[in-house]
Amino acid sequence: MRTVRAIYATDLSAASEAAIENETCLDYLRRVGVDEIHLVTVVPSNVHSGMPGMDFEGRRRRALERYRDVMEDAGFEVEAHVVRGTPHRRINGIAESVRAELTIVGSRGQSPLENRVIGSTARNLARTTVVPLLVNRVERATDEPEVVREHLFRRVLYATDFSENAERAFEAFSYLRHATEEATLVHVESPKDPVDDPEAQLSEFAERLEDWDIDTRIELRYGDAADEILDVEESVTPTTTLLGSRGRSRLRRLLLGSVSEEIVARAAGNVYLVPPPRTA
User: Fold this and answer.
1) I need a labelling partner for 86 at 20 to 30 A (CA). Which of 124, 186, 236, 245 fits?
2) DSSP characters for 236-261?
3) What InterPro entries does the record tag this protein with (predicted)?
4) What DSSP designation does 161 have?
5) For residue range 181-222, what is the model confidence (pLDDT) as tens digits?
6) d(CA 250, CA 171)
7) Interatomic CA distance for residues 203 and 3, integer angstroms
C-alpha cells in the first residue's frame, strides 16, 4: 500500500499550533489519504545558537515532540525535523527528499505583523513550492487564534484559466472528492487572453464532479482575476480555494502564478495551490 507523505511546516507560533492541534483539520487530512507527516521547523540563518540564553534548536525540538504526540494520537506516522536556513528553501528541500505529496503551512494571512516568519514563508512557498501547498488559514489579531474554516475540503472553490497546470489542479479532486461535498468552479475572462467557450468547459468540469456526487455550480466573471476570484470566495465562503500556480501566459502580469500569490495573501479561507510537476 502506497504511503502518502505530507510536510507540516511550523514556526511554533500560536497560529501554527492552532492548525496542528485542530482535530477536524487532521481528520480531513486522513480523508484525502495522508498517513505520514513530517513536522518541519526552520531556525533562520540569522539566528545563532550561541546567542545568550537562546537554545533555539532545543526549544523547537521539545515543542515538536508535543506536536508529534498530537499527530500520533490522531493516527499518523510522524517524523520531526529541526533544520537551519531559509525557511521556504529548506521546506521545499525536505519535501523533495522524502517525496512528499503535500506541504501544509498555517498562516494568519494579512496579519498586521508583516514580518511574521510563517506569513512570509507562505508567500515564498506559493512562488516556489515543489508539491501541492495547503495554506491553512487561522484567525489574526488574537493571542489565541482558531482555524478559520476547519472543514478543509468540504466546500471547494476551484479557479481556472484552462491552462495545463490549472487542469492539473482540477485533477486534485480525484482524491479531494473523498472529503468534498460542494464545489464552485470559476473562470475570469481576460480580453487579452481569451478562451474558447469557457462556459462549456466549466460545465464539462461540473459534470465530472456531479458524477462524484459533489454539488457543483459555475461562475463566469470578467475583470481582474485575483479580485474576481476573491469576490466569489466572499460570496460562497468555501472552506478552501483550489488553483494552479502557473497559467496560460508567459507575461508575468497575466500569469496565474501572480494571481495565486495574491490569493494566498488575501483569501479569507484556506488555499490549496497545485504547482507544475517536479520535472517541469
Assistant:
1) 245
2) H--SEEEEES--S-SSGGG-HHHHHH
3) Rossmann-like_a/b/a_fold, Universal_stress_UspA, UspA
4) -
5) 999 999 998 877 778 899 999 999 999 999 999 999 999 999
6) 23
7) 34
Q: Are 140 and 19 in contact (CB under 8 A)?
A: no
- The three cell numbers of residue 170 are 482540477
Please give the Cα distance from 241 to 185 (Å, whole number): 10
For the record, the C-alpha cell of 202 comes out as: 466549466
Residue 244 contacts by C-beta under 8 Å, 6 or more apart in sequence?
A: 160, 163, 165, 166, 167, 168, 169, 256, 260, 273, 274, 275, 276
Residue ranges and CATH numbers for the domains of the chain are 5-137 (3.40.50.620), 155-274 (3.40.50.620)
SS3 145: coil
| Residue 242, all three cell numbers | 483550489
Q: Give the mean pLDDT of the chain.
A: 83
